[in-house]
């Protein structure tokens, strides 16, 4: 039994390591370093002028505690066939689940340590208070894990289907994160009609691929949600980073990452044979994609300006966002699409 689950863990970790090479690519690492540097400077300045009262500090501790307890699930590595082939080994499997629980505490422990250590200067915790806080969070996380595994047992018998479904959800959630950066085996992109966005779809007067690319963007499980996350992230940066140059740099990187990911829209209909019979040239397809990317960049830029003007309204540097938008919305897609021909 131990050898079976050890083999599954090894195979899963190898798969994750393979995808991590695509997640932590040069672009993302650059973005991450800039974000960490900008936030570190802002946090250091905040600590120098920290005048939070005890009520605000208690609220921060509560929020951080809740956030720290969210990440992480028990990695059971159960598979669909286990309900048949391992049914006779149920008692042995229970011991393996206990080992899996202990092993699964590693990730949340790291998260709790990092969040607690970063937050402690802001809430003015002494070392002994920090240690007690960390211990309490670890105990609570362990209790949550035990309660979760206990929910899969009824009268001493395992709920095999529940355990298998729980593990499928856990692994799928992690793979979906990797799917934001590269194609992931076993993850299928599902289209979802968002009726509240149907008014954006052209009724007539637009080229065939202008309609198809826009519909794919609005209804895809990847492109739309990714764009929404990046937009929210850009707004958060505007609010919490008070250095205008740092904000502009991070916004430029966010917009670049957006266009970099959306350029893959070009391949969204290549696998559909019937699309090839449309009387549409390759140049018209590329033009339709460029126009969509330009509209998205313009929308992003307008939202960013709406939030930047009240905060940096005396800073002329806000206008730099306009040439950045032109560069990423017009010149960069032309350059990439020409190279991909």
Gist of the model:
The protein has 341 residues and is mainly α. It contains 13 helices and 2 strands, in the order αααααααββαααααα. Strands 1-2 form a two-stranded antiparallel sheet.
Class by SSE composition = mainly alpha
Helical residue percent band: over 70%
Using only C-alpha atoms, the radius of gyration works out to 25 Å
Given as residue ranges, the uncertain stretches (5+ residues, pLDDT < 50) are none
Compute the separation of the termini in Å. 52 Å
Total strands: 2
Mean pLDDT comes to: 83
Molecular structure report:
With 341 residues, the protein is mostly helical. The protein folds into 2 domains: 2-179, no CATH class; 195-339, no CATH class. It has helices at residues 2-23, 26-48, 54-69, 82-85, 90-104, 106-123, 127-150, 160-179, 208-219, 223-240, 244-262, 282-311, 321-339, and strands at residues 153-154, 157-158. Strands 1-2 form a two-stranded antiparallel ribbon. A hairpin with a 2-residue loop joins strand 1 (153-154) and strand 2. Helix 2 runs antiparallel to helix 11 (244-262), helix 10 packs antiparallel against helix 11 and helix 11 packs antiparallel against helix 12. The protein is flat and about 65 Å long. The relative contact order is 0.09.
